[in-house]
From TrEMBL:
Biological process terms in GO annotation: carnosine biosynthetic process
Full protein name: ATP-grasp domain-containing protein
Organism encoding this protein: Alosa alosa
Keywords attached to this entry: ATP-binding, Nucleotide-binding
Lineage: Eukaryota, Metazoa, Chordata, Craniata, Vertebrata
Annotated ATP-grasp domain residues: 575-777
Keyword Nucleotide-binding appears in the UniProt entry: yes
Gene Ontology molecular function, alphabetical: ATP binding; ATP hydrolysis activity; carnosine synthase activity; metal ion binding
Length: 883
């Protein structure tokens, strides 16, 4: 029911403001559910608390309600929250919500209370609700009063940005600089003065020196202000004509009584803004328009930049507004509009170059602020977990020496709200790109708060390429228990408990399960979840989970997915009566395993050639080969059988199997499912395989194909997993898109290995390891498939070509390190393969760029410098499909 008029007295005034805005946006008014306190919120849920005026962050709240329904909460007064000593971090406090306006999907809002207070995992406050509650919390907080002050300290910002040579209005002149300045802006003049009396005597000379700087000559105005007054301050800042020396002196003198210890008076040159180009008018006396005196304009540009989950600056939106030239250079926005549209209307060319330049400097600003904050003491940050996740960077565009340049107008901290609110609310189609990156960061930080202190059991460490799993777990404060067959693995340094146990003979997985559980009991270890990133260990992991009573997929589901021919037969037999999705049997291909050569001959004749021979329980494309006739098929099966007898403890009793060869393009889908619901999916495109062993050659993420085809591929991967019983986990699915739709190659019932987790983090900002950790603990991750930030392109170099390139290029390692250090490529190697003839790729080179062609060109250049490109391994041929 709605809140009645007589019951509104107990609600703050901001509640009425919220209802008015909801009404203007044609959204339902807030419903009162306080008579039935919510019971569906636990202490391990993602809970995002916003303590601010609702108009400042409504676009974020509505987006949060859509992506994290029931978990985005607005608290309108301090009595709606309480603090309690933290159970996870000694000396800190947890913040709990007693009452909140909860945002749900579809723009629905509810006034809620809770059967037990729900713990906040991320706090955003603007100070309008009274004294800050964020200091000393065990969860991450978006800024703090202390960080807000630092963010808007003009002189400090000039110092920080000087390291990146951020353009300003020629640079300020601090007449009394505070102590402890470690660096200065390239055009920053310092005039040290110890006493105010000395300042008054020397002020005239200082101003004269400032006005004589060459950089100042092109300015038309000078801004006079106190260094800590803030970028947006107009009350304590005077703007005068550059020629008005007496006025500048009076303005500076008027600020002297207001100065506090550590403050400075700043003079900043202000340059005129660019002007619209004159349009050619119709020269016809009959329709001639009257001549109107053109007034001078000032173009303000506001770039919104947020911190990504991996602590990188990301531009989320670029807006602008136009004022008269006589307006204050740091005036607030009038009606916001698109920068691209404005520059186009003004007749400016080379828009991409202008916008790229603005983006570069805006990101430089946030990077400088993040670097500075990382070195601050806790007291100066206002809390152990306080950090700046969002800023606005204001620019103007002017000309210097005939060159169009951006000039810094100011920095706005998060307490000023979302700069995209008017645009985002009135034009929802433009909102997602501006809001979702910040929301993604907030959810990731919430996940980190939830995972801190959890205990996870890992079955197997894998090759060196899997080390990132344990590095990530330690980074998030997870206590890792690793069961490994090696006496010492590199992961040893990143785990809390290292249990040595040989589980490599997977024909004895039931016995291994009993022994592993016994080891845990002897040490008194009780994990919250159990998982593996090693394909061979997935069934063993499922058995251990079942024995310990931990959440996750059943042994039966993992067994169906792990055994390749059984996967195909199982899906072909699924009787689905739903009409909204294709039947799973449409994704299957003919495949069969066999016990002996007699069965092989009969099966091969029925399949026809070419065909694919592989191991029933194989992993990583090992032992997969294309055979073109019955003789090749028989010879290769004999070879596989002989190798298996030499290694009786190599894993499963894995018989060879044969599968029909599929024509078409191969795609890989990494997807996460929780309680049967698809959370996210990432599709990558695989270039031509290196035959006959199907060694991966090249890769592209995102796939670049049409949304319709990508949707078909994702639906096929999701349905295949779901109908095999895989309902809780992160999975890696190989498919081919044929002339008659997507066809399943195989399901790997664990997260993708090698370079894919790194690519997903780089392209989409999603840490797939974190998603797997949360699901293993039966916690729903608040994740989705965001818009890609660029393209990752890579090649996988077979071991033979890798060794040959190293022999041909003595400086191979030096060149590779140089390419990595310059950011041209990223490389990863498999170092534990010594067989020169093995059909495996040991070197992966990848490049990330906003433009696909730039990433491809980087790989081509690197492969030539490293002598990887050759007639035997033509890199351009493998990359050509992506061009």
């Amino acid at each position: 029911m709605d809140i009645s008029k007589k019951d509104k007295s107990f609600l703050p005034q901001s509640y009425s403001t919220l209802q008015q805005i909801l009404c203007e946006l044609a959204l339902p008014k807030t419903r009162d559910r306080t008579q039935n306190p919510r019971k569906d919120v636990g202490r391990c849920d993602v809970i995002i608390c916003v303590m601010a005026s609702p108009d400042k962050y409504l676009s974020l709240l509505l987006a949060g309600g859509k992506k994290c329904p029931g978990r985005m909460m607005l608290c309108l007064c301090p009595s709606w929250v309480c603090r309690s000593p933290s159970n996870t971090q000694s000396g800190l406090f947890s913040l709990f919500i007693l009452k909140a306006v909860t945002f749900e999907a579809g723009g629905y809002t509810y006034l809620d209370t809770f059967s037990s207070p729900c713990r906040v995992m991320y706090l955003l406050e603007d100070g309008s609700m009274g004294p800050s509650v964020g200091e000393g919390l065990d969860c991450l907080t978006c800024s703090s009063p202390q960080l807000n002050t630092l963010t808007e300290d003009v002189l400090l910002n000039y110092q920080l940005f000087g390291k990146g040579c951020l353009p300003s209005h020629a640079g300020p002149l601090p007449i009394i600089p505070p102590e402890g300045l470690v660096s200065s802006h390239p055009s920053l003049m310092l005039h040290p003065t110890q006493e105010k009396e000395d300042l008054e005597e020397s002020m005239e000379k200082v101003i004269s020196d400032f006005l004589q700087q060459p950089e100042v000559q092109g300015s038309d105005k000078v801004l006079v202000q106190l260094s800590t007054s803030g970028w947006g301050s107009q009350e304590s800042a005077a703007v005068l004509r550059r020629q008005d020396r007496e006025g500048l002196l009076r303005a500076a003198a008027a600020l002297v009584p207001q100065m506090r210890e550590g403050e400075a008076i700043l003079l900043t040159a202000c340059y005129p803004s660019i002007q619209p180009l004159q349009r050619t008018k119709v020269k016809n006396s009959l329709f001639k328009e009257p001549t109107v005196r053109k007034e001078q304009l000032f173009l303000h540009i506001s770039a919104q930049v947020c911190r990504t989950p991996d602590d990188q600056p990301q531009l989320t939106q670029m807006l602008c507004w136009v004022d008269r030239a006589e307006s204050h250079p740091r005036a607030g926005p009038s009606s916001l509009q698109s920068l691209e549209e404005t520059l186009r209307d003004w007749g400016l060319s080379q828009l991409d170059d202008i916008i790229s330049s603005l983006e570069k400097w805006a990101k430089t600003a946030l990077q400088a602020i993040m670097d500075h904050q990382s070195e601050l003491e806790v007291t100066k940050k206002g809390g152990l977990h306080a950090r700046t996740d969002l800023i606005g960077v204001d620019f103007s565009l002017g000309k210097m020496d005939g060159e169009l340049l951006p000039f810094l107008l100011g920095i706005k901290n998060v307490s000023r709200g979302m700069f995209s609110t008017p645009n985002g609310l009135l034009h929802p189609q433009l909102s997602s790109s501006a809001i979702e990156p910040l929301l993604q960061t907030i959810c990731h930080h919430s996940h980190c708060s939830i995972l801190a202190g959890k205990t996870l059991l890992f079955i197997g460490a894998g090759a060196s390429k899997k080390l990132g799993v344990f590095v990530t777990a330690k980074q998030y404060g997870i206590k890792s228990i690793l069961v490994c067959y090696k006496e010492r693995h590199p992961a040893y340094d990143y785990v809390s408990e290292y249990l040595v146990y040989d589980y490599m003979d997977h024909t004895q997985d039931e016995v291994h399960t009993e022994n592993i559980v016994s080891l845990l009991e002897k040490k008194g270890l009780q994990p919250d979840g159990c998982l593996t990133f090693i394909c061979k260990n997935t069934i063993l992991c499922a058995l251990v989970r079942a024995k310990l009573g931990l959440p996750g997929d059943t042994v039966e589901a993992i067994s169906i997915a792990k055994r390749k021919s059984h996967t195909q037969r199982h899906l072909a037999a699924v009787d689905q009566c739903w009409c909204h999705l294709p039947a799973p049997r449409q994704y299957t291909v003919r495949s069969e395993n066999f016990e002996d050569l007699t069965d092989l001959t009969r099966t091969a004749e029925s399949f026809g050639f070419p065909a694919v021979v592989k191991q029933e329980y194989g992993a990583g494309s090992v032992s997969v080969k294309l055979v073109e006739n019955a003789q090749q098929c028989e010879e290769y099966v004999q070879e596989m059988t002989a190798l298996k007898t030499l290694d009786p403890n190599g894993g499963f009793a894995s018989n060879p199997m044969i599968m029909e060869f599929l024509e078409g393009v191969k795609y890989v889908v990494d997807l996460a499912i929780f309680e049967g619901r698809l959370l996210l999916a990432f599709v990558s495109w695989c270039g031509p395989s290196v035959l006959p062993y199907f060694i991966s050659s090249s890769h592209l993420m995102p796939s670049g194909i049409s949304q319709e085809k990508e949707a078909q591929i994702v639906a096929a991967a999701y349905q295949s997993c779901l109908h095999c019983g895989l309902e809780n986990g992160v999975y890696n699915v190989d498919l081919k898109l044929t002339d008659h739709g997507p066809k399943l190659i195989e399901i790997n019932p664990r997260a993708g290995g090698n370079f894919l987790p790194t690519w997903i983090k780089e392209v989409y900002g999603v840490d797939i390891f974190t998603v797997a950790f949360l699901i293993a603990c039966n916690i729903q991750p608040q994740v989705w498939t965001p818009q890609p930030r660029g393209y990752s392109v890579g090649i996988s170099c077979p071991i033979k070509q890798h060794f040959r390139a190293k022999e041909k290029t003595p400086e191979f390692d030096v060149i590779l390190n140089s390419l990595n250090n310059k950011g041209l490529v990223k490389s990863s190697m498999i170092t534990d393969v010594m067989d020169y003839t093995a059909p495996v790729a040991t070197l992966n080179l990848s490049s990330f760029s906003k433009k696909r062609e730039d990433a491809i060109n980087n790989i081509l250049l690197a492969s030539q410098m490293l002598c990887i490109d050759s007639e035997d391994y033509p890199v351009r041929y493998f990359l050509e499909p992506f061009m």
